[in-house]
Design goal:
Shape: extended
Largest sheet: 6 strands, mixed
Number of strands: 6
Distance between the termini: 53 Å
Number of domains: 2
Structural class: alpha/beta
Helix content: 40-55%
Radius of gyration: 27 Å
Order of helices and strands: HHEEEHEEHEHHHHH
Strand content: 5-15%
Length: 304
């Protein structure tokens, strides 16, 4: 299949979740990720990826309620964000507080799953799927705290505290090695490559291949989608250019430092040129600046 014929997952779940057929696609992904048979009861909230193209087109938030009355936050992040973990924590806290009415008992707080699909290197880790949940472990004997029998009876059969607290999933798409070892990997392959292979059989993914095609879009929506793709390409190019510029600055700073040390040690100018890649004018300017700064210690030597 030509990749251009398949709609990106982020745009599709923002714009195309209109009927049960489309629900089944998202249900398939959630079922494979959460290892449970997920049924979507309703889409409660969807924001980000706005129609205004200057909005950085970098985030999509969706809030889903499943048939177990649990809440699922889905967020796709294309650009680097250093405080992303904090935003994950804020997102779940906000959902919890907004979906319990004043005067309700705490036991009515809904379980929240936070699913984060990121296209940048979040944190330090080589895996491409991370799962976080809350367990309480004894400080002295390392036993795991469980709910009491009465709590289990009153709380619908829950046995562990983690079943009450929010759970987090992080999918680091760019870390995926393109080898689909299981049905969930098939979904991640789609996220990364915008392609669904003929042999993929994950729950819901066949329906995505059938329905989420660019040529199925009405003309106006097709233009909006193509503009979205163009914006993503532009954003990726800008990010790459900034990275290259930063790397070049680091190299130049190292070369300047080597030249400064070499010149102070009396190394021949031609040798410094060959070893640093700096021009004679740059090296001479550096030397003059260094000489001046020796006479005026309060003046910082800067290569212009």
């Amino acid at each position: 299949m030509n990749n251009r014929n398949l709609i990106r997952f982020d745009w599709a779940i923002k714009r195309l979740l209109r009927n049960k057929a489309d629900y089944s696609i998202l249900e398939g992904f959630l079922s494979e990720l959460l290892k449970d048979d997920i049924t979507i009861q309703s889409i409660l909230e969807s924001e980000g990826n706005q129609k205004i193209y200057s909005d950085k087109f970098n985030r999509l938030d969706m809030l889903v309620k499943n048939s177990k009355d649990e809440l699922v936050v889905i967020e796709i992040q294309n650009e680097n964000e250093y405080d992303y973990f904090h935003r994950m924590a804020y997102g779940t806290a906000k959902v919890i507080s907004e979906y319990i009415s004043v005067g309700e008992p705490y036991k009515n707080i809904k379980k929240v799953f936070s699913i984060n699909i990121v296209y940048f290197d979040l944190g330090q880790g080589e895996d491409y799927i991370y799962h976080g949940k809350t367990d309480f472990v004894g400080v002295h004997i390392s036993d795991k705290l469980k709910l009491s029998a009465k709590q289990t009876e009153l709380l619908g059969g829950k046995t562990d505290p983690f079943q009450v607290f929010s759970e987090y999933y992080i999918i680091k798409v760019n870390n995926f090695d393109d080898i689909a070892k299981d049905p969930l990997d098939q979904w991640i392959y789609y996220f990364k490559n915008n392609e669904i292979r003929d042999d993929f059989n994950a729950k819901g993914i066949g329906k995505a291949k059938e329905l989420w095609r660019v040529d199925n879009l009405p003309e106006g929506e097709r233009e909006s989608y193509l503009k979205h793709i163009e914006n993503l390409h532009y954003s990726a190019s800008m990010s790459w250019a900034l990275k290259v510029d930063a790397e070049d600055r680091v190299k130049k700073e190292k070369a300047i430092e080597i030249a400064r040390i070499s010149k102070n040690k009396g190394v021949d100018l031609e040798i410094i040129i060959q070893s640093t890649g700096l021009s004679a004018a740059e090296i001479n300017a550096l030397w003059l600046c260094t000489y001046t700064s020796r006479r005026r210690k309060n003046k910082k030597c800067i290569l212009r």
